Amino acid sequence: MQSSKKKQALLDMLPILTELGHAVDLQMALETCVEEGNFTKVLFQFIWVLDSLSDLSAVQEMSRGVEVWLGKTLQKLDSLLLEVCQNFKEDGYLTVSSRLALCN
Fold this sequence. Notes:
Blueprint: H1 2-36, H2 39-52, H3 59-86, H4 90-103
């Protein structure tokens, strides 16, 4: 009878382990999106992850990790925006905006 309880406990863990494996796959996909700079996709994936994992009791623990990860993502986005701003050339912008005004 002891072995049947262990067997049942292991069988009960299978769906949880499957969900955790899926969560790891999603995290890797999100990190790939961040590396590629596809921040819109990251946001939608992040929302989907929170929604799809909301029934797990470990979501609060996972949410803390996701918050840290999201903070790193936002820092990367911030540094990319800073780089764009630093490379901004006012003369080029004025030329483009002047030409656009002529076209309208």
